[in-house]
Amino acid sequence: MLIVTLVALVIGSGLLIRFAYRTPSVGTEVTLGEIYRAGDEGRVVWARLQDEKAQILGQSCPSPLVGSRPEVAPSELQSAEAARAFGALCPGGLVTFRAYYPRSDVATQKLIDSVTEKGAGVVDKKLGKAVAKLMLHA
Questions:
Q1: What is this structure's pTM?
Q2: Which domain holds residue 59?
Q3: Is residue 1 part of a domain?
């Protein structure tokens, strides 16, 4: 009986920790193919690669932008001002997306190239956090 209680306690603690540290999902989950198409068509406004999770987050327009892209610094792409500027050129309104990509330097670079080819900004690759963790474990 004591063993069953201990096992239940360990499993319960594990589940509690897992749900406590789970990050909420942001945006609509899409396929990489959809991101490549949006990038090729110049519909991606900004993207952020989170290498640690192998996840890309960003905003795109469901239809081609009407007019030329506003000049916005990469550090300002997620601001409300940039959202208004791009939103005015996006008939369907901006859509927040997320997708997971393969953990590979080649795949990551291909994704960055596809998204930025037509002018989208890559905001922050979140590499500092991974480097800091690597240094802590070394």
A1: 0.67
A2: 27-137
A3: no
Question: Is residue 3 situated within a structural domain?
Answer: no
Q: Is residue 49 part of a domain?
A: yes
Instruction: Provide the residue-wise pLDDT of the chain in tens; the chain has 138 residues.
Output: 778 777 777 676 766 665 554 455 677 899 999 999 998 888 888 888 888 888 999 889 998 888 888 887 777 877 888 888 888 888 888 899 999 998 888 888 888 888 888 777 776 555 444 433 333 333
Q: Are 38 and 44 in contact (CB under 8 A)?
A: yes
All residues at 6 or more sequence positions from 99 whose CB lies less than 8 Å from its CB, including other chains: 29, 30, 31, 32, 34, 35, 55, 56
As for how many domains the chain has, the answer is 1
